[in-house]
Sequence to fold (101 residues):
Amino acid sequence: MKLFITAFALVLGAQAAHAEDVSILIKNFDFGPMNVTVAPGTTVVWKNLDGEPHTVASADGLFRSMALDQNDSFRFKFDKTGTFKYICSIHPNMRASITVK
Fold:
């Protein structure tokens, strides 16, 4: 019985670790941090702090936000492993990536 409870606690702990969101701020026409590594199941939240609109658009078409005005946010849950490059489609010189492993 003790082994079962310990195993159950480990599973709950692993689920809790994946439940936290990771934040990326859009500020001064840049994504910060630009390169993030997360575990599968993690939700990434981008928040635009600039006074200009920005988007979050993956190079492979997996995710794409609408134009985010100041203080707007966009969320995406990464379930699969890999490296996902993205840009602001309004300002394509803004580039960053998410690595899921």
Remarks:
- Confidence is low (pLDDT under 50) at residues 1-18.
